[in-house]
Write a structure and sequence with these properties.
The complex is a heterodimer of chains A (283) and B (267). By secondary structure, chain A is mainly α. Chain A is built from 13 helices and two strands, in the order αββαααααααααααα. In chain B, helix 1 packs across helix 11. Chain B is mainly α and 267 residues long. Classes of the chains: A mainly alpha (283), B mainly alpha (267).
């Protein structure tokens, strides 16, 4: 073991950070919990029971973000795999090109999808050129599919990049050894490549699922505002865009999201550890 | 099989770039429709530069991004030094707290700080959310990323070099500046850049913590998307995208040029 550098006093180094994190991270979260359990007359569970009236919204949020995460995984894995097998120059450029779209503001990009999908949008106008002016147009926007598309589009790079990183870390000699020992392509993928890329898959899933389940912009722009997700409810209760400001219910909803993510993270970590111990055992 | 893969890759890239193409293409539209191209013109670029709301909301986010990136780099680097020297449960407590803003959804981080600001500011009459709260919020969500990018560099460096410098009579501060800082510099720089871009691109945190009067660029964009759509937005986005593209090209071409230079001098 190497010693770690100790510069000055570690206490002094940690003071600004600790103070900052306590005041602006821990206390605010304590306030969220406090607001979630209080009302006009002090302690109450009514905020949480009130949320029960939104159970269909909560389910919809969970369902749509799970679907979006699954689609991202299915699309991202082959891309990440192919990039990781390409030459070094191609690899560098490819990851650059995957990052690049994220440099345009995501509101503008999501809005551009509206231009593409809406009834007088590019796809339907294109179809009218083919089928004639009377073509009624496909119903591509303001539905669940469009919200999922928005999620997949915005968060796909977050799935591709970690999987790609995990894949490039795989030692090529493992694959060569398996081939020498007579394994076929499918077997090599199933027994070596896939298990060793699990950490990348897991961080990809977290990086897609968390922003998807808490989004409130994508559902507004592409969902036509009729299918509110949890994020939309929180926004409404804190900023009062629909006339009611209620920090208590908003805080309770945020608490629900935090708990859901906590459970998901624990589940993922367990899965990750299992994969690591099993993977290590196989090798 | 190979061609199938190639086609799949191309489709994914088309998917990723289709909206960007649409934005850029229609920024040159002569008409005002965002889906019907009527002819080439630069009128939206001209109007964009005459729009004071856009120009003012370009200025403040830049100030916030620069300030919050610098402050959080200082806080984060110091914290990384401190955390790296810790051991056992103390270390994991600090790392877990550091991870809270990273793992929590933006909207939860945003509203939790908003509750604090509203709570505190309600005690002081006449104070409102604005520049100050926005800066605090940005430092809060930037610092953890700096910690996360500096820590691996500290872990990877050989502490003996630092102690050797001390043994050779170099004063601690000087050995820190001359030995430790150069070794962890890549981590500090990437933390700084990450903080700057996160801050510049942030919408959700700013949306909840900037108050009614103070606008950053993403908020301006959001309020513009609510009104009848204006192609100025496309012009603005295209211009910003072009700036980023040029910067990225410079950053990526520079190492290649330097390598060439080294090779030439070696000959």
């Amino acid at each position: 073991m190497t010693k770690s550098v100790e510069v000055g006093s570690k206490k002094v180094n940690l003071i600004p950070f600790s103070g900052w994190m306590v005041v602006f991270v821990l206390i605010p979260i304590a306030l969220v919990v406090y607001y979630a359990f209080t009302g006009v007359d002090g302690f109450t569970l009514s905020n949480l029971t009130w949320i029960w009236t939104y159970r269909s919204t909560l389910w919809l949020s969970v369902w749509l973000s799970l679907l979006a995460t699954a689609i991202c995984l299915l699309l991202a894995y082959p891309v990440a795999y192919m990039i990781s097998r390409a030459s070094e120059k191609v690899q560098r450029n490819a990851s650059l090109f995957i990052m690049l779209p994220m440099w345009m503001n995501f509101l503008v990009r999501t809005y551009a999808w509206m231009t593409i999908l809406e009834n007088n949008g590019l796809i339907n106008n294109g179809l009218r050129l083919i089928f004639g002016e009377d073509f009624a147009g496909l119903n591509l926007i303001n539905n669940h599919g469009a919200i999922i598309l928005g999620m997949v589009y915005n968060y796909l790079p977050y799935m591709i990049l970690p999987i790609y990183t995990a894949l490039t870390k795989i030692d090529n000699s493992l694959i060569e050894a398996a081939r020498d020992l007579g394994s076929g392509g499918v077997q090599i993928f199933r027994r070596i490549v896939l298990p060793l890329s699990v950490p990348g898959i897991i961080s990809g899933i977290t990086m897609v699922f968390i922003p998807s389940i808490s989004t409130f912009i994508i559902s507004k722009i592409l969902g036509g505002g009729k299918d509110f997700l949890i994020g939309d409810l929180i926004e409404d209760y804190f900023l009062g865009n629909s006339g009611v400001v209620n920090y208590n219910i908003g805080a309770a909803l945020s608490l629900v999201i935090m708990v859901m993510i906590l459970i998901a993270t624990c589940f993922m970590n367990k899965f990750d550890k299992d994969a690591k111990t099993n993977g290590g055992g196989v090798i | 099989m190979k061609t199938v893969g190639k086609i799949f890759n191309i489709l994914i890239f088309i998917f990723l770039y289709a909206p960007i193409f649409v934005v850029v293409f229609f920024s040159f539209n002569e008409g005002s429709s965002r889906a019907l191209f009527e002819g080439f013109s630069l009128q939206w670029y001209r109007e964009m530069f005459e729009d004071e709301l856009i120009l003012s909301s370009l200025y403040y986010p830049l100030v916030i991004a620069v300030l919050s990136a610098i402050i959080s780099t200082v806080i984060g680097t110091m914290a990384a030094l401190g955390i790296n020297a810790l051991k056992g449960w103390k270390k994991s407590v600090f790392l877990s707290v550091n991870n809270i803003p990273v793992v929590n959804p933006d909207i939860v981080t945003a509203i939790s700080m908003m509750i604090l600001f509203v709570f505190v500011l309600s005690k002081f009459h006449g104070m409102e959310m604005g520049f100050g709260t926005l800066l605090i919020a940005h430092i809060t969500f930037n610092s953890p990323y700096v910690v996360l990018s500096v820590l691996p560099k500290l872990r990877g460096m050989d502490a003996n070099i630092y102690y050797a410098a001390l043994d050779l009579g170099c004063p601690p501060l000087k050995s820190f500046l001359k030995v430790v800082i150069p070794q962890i510099m890549p981590g500090i720089v990437s933390g700084l850049i990450m903080a700057f871009t996160l801050s510049l691109d942030d919408f959700v945190i700013s949306y909840f913590n900037s108050g009614a009067t103070f606008q950053t660029l993403p908020i301006t964009i959001y309020s513009m998307t609510k009104k009848p759509y204006n192609l100025k937005l496309n012009a603005l986005s295209t211009m910003l995208f072009a700036v980023v593209l040029v910067l990225m090209l410079i950053v990526n071409l520079r190492p290649a040029a330097e390598k060439k230079k080294v090779r030439r001098t070696a000959k």
